[in-house]
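Researcher: I've got a protein sequence and the SMILES for S-adenosylmethionine. Could you write out the 3D structure of the bound complex as structure tokens? I'd like something to compare against our soaking experiments later this week.
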Amino acid sequence: MEEISAKTQMAKIRTYEKGFMATHLVNLGAKLGIFEALNENKKGLTVPILASKLGIHEPYLRIWCQTAYHFEILDGDEEGRYTLQPYLDEILGDKNHFRNYLANIAMDVDLIGDGFTKAPGAFRTGRPLDIYQSPEFSELAYEPTTNIALAFLFMIFPKHENLKLMLEKGISFLDIGCGNGSLIIQLAQAFGNSRFVGIGPDANGIKSARSTISELEMEDRVSVNHLGGEKLEYKDEFEMVSMVVTLHEIPPALREKVVKKAYKALKPQGYLLVLDFPYPSKLEDFRNPIYNYGILDQFYEICAGRVHLTIEQQNQLLTASGFTDIQRWPVGRGMFDFITATK
Ligand SMILES: C[S@@+](CC[C@H](N)C(=O)[O-])C[C@H]1O[C@@H](n2cnc3c(N)ncnc32)[C@H](O)[C@@H]1O
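Model: Sure. Here is the predicted complex with S-adenosylmethionine in place.
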């Protein structure tokens, strides 16, 4: 490792600053439609053509393209055509690609960035910021998890055949914190014999779930309720209950109540499935790259009043609620832990 000096420390801080600028550049490029246009024109486009196609002021666009070239997001040829670097057509270009990352970038810049400008007040008072409860936030917040069902279908179920077989055979499945219903809707499409219920306290998410369910004419097998998990009244009704990227978002004061309600809702021997960020319990692990996602998520979410749980806290919570046989596996190179527990 290079010895620490004023020079290396300055370089480190400059790298963070550069990352900030690059993130804004990507968000701006997405809003202007530049990535979409370059994705549709794999051979590349010159600045004048791109400018007239997208209605962008040419001198500004030239600066954007040159800067994107500097960040190694774009390549350029001798005829002045710019192209997306390899694989960035998937990550930044094609919005339907499962690797597309633009929703995360938009959330970072448009909402979390806004939150950070108000963060000093929240840090002083400990009072969560309203913007994280807004309909705009709810809309943007579900975009990054739109494809979470793919993680279940292609990463989790192949390693947990028993769960997949149960779903194929036909079970009742409850998703606590269903957001806009994207998980249960996609699971219902994949498992035609099972019935799905989603609940959550976010009225906007539930409204959007209802309209998708009705558009897809799935009302006979998929339903949603506008309800916090702490208010659930089911008893011995579901073979599986899930909490997907939700456990850490439940207010700490309600968390135990929600997990107990999940336990009650499950049939005996039923499974609780939790997918969530792992969070370090030891200081040295805050430099372990495995925890990257959880650490960054917690950093902005603290101003929303959300508190991530360490492995020990998760286990303790589940055990205190009656669950046994708690098992966990990393998913997506440590981005998430997939946890199962039995009633
Ligand atoms: C990051 S979102 C994940 C949504 C969804 N599971 C997905 O994967 O797209 C976290 C969800 O937790 C929900 N939530 C917060 N408090 C809750 C509570 N008390 N009971 C149930 N869900 C809750 C929020 O409304 C939000 O939809």
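Model: The mean pLDDT is 95. The chain has two domains: 6-100, 130-342.
Researcher: Great, I'll pass this along to the crystallography team.
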